[in-house]
Hints:
This protein has helices at residues 2-15, 18-35, 39-46, 49-72, 74-80, 93-114, 116-134, 142-162, 167-190, 192-197, 203-231, 237-259, 263-283. The protein is mainly α. The chain starts with a helix and ends with a helix.
Amino acid sequence: MIRLLTTDLPGFIKASRIPSLLIISITQIFTAVFLVSDFSEKKSIIFSFEFFLLIVSTLMIAAGGFIINDYYDQKIDMINRPKKVVVGTKFRRRLAMLSHSALSFTGIAIGFWLDIRIGVLHIFSAFGLWYYSNHLRRLPIIGNMTISFLTSLTLLIVAVFFRKHELLIYVYALFAFLTVLVREVIKDIEDVKGEAAAGCQTIPVVWGIRGAKLFIYLVIAAGGSFLLSFLLTTESILVRYYFLLLVPVFGWFIYKLAISDRQQHYIHLRMITNLIILSGLISMVLI
């Protein structure tokens, strides 16, 4: 009992990635408030117990995904970042697996209580996060695209909950997908040593660092084309300025990526992608 309270509980909290869960909850709230139209009509729903349960169930699925990812990535993390390993050191592996199962099944159950479509999406997300950590994480492209799509699903599920198919929600979901995809490939470059030792077939392991960089350039080019087309159609001047400001940011990002050749450089670039994602969240307020 003493170990459970003094070691496993803090380990569980750390493995759950509380800061990331906070960002997910704010993302869903901002999506509901700023991206779903007719705020006066939906205000009672946003502040309802049902919407609160949607956020809670999503966070349970996400926390379970973080824990199971640390569970399967323990050997890789022991090479890349041994001081930050939680599962297996500060949080017993058996309890980690139990926590993942309890969080996932509870989140799914709440989802079905809210709406059968939410429940199905939660099953898809929970299975996707488990399969990603167990298998897809070690494959090139498909693993990166899977986790990127599951991240964008945190926005899309709000549209399903409100039964509103808003263009802006899909725009921001696509923006999140592309930005997270870039971040995940950079993370693979950063962790290439441990992933190669573990037999992972990630993009930098299979194609090399140059091939991984080329893939990122192509993703940014696709994202840039998307941004330009969106700028031509959006009526919000402030949002237009926001996305216009991202153009030189990504140009500078490409330059920094081209000259990067050390792990610390890639850590810095990954932090920049996190800031871009955060700025996208803040930009919702401008709409």
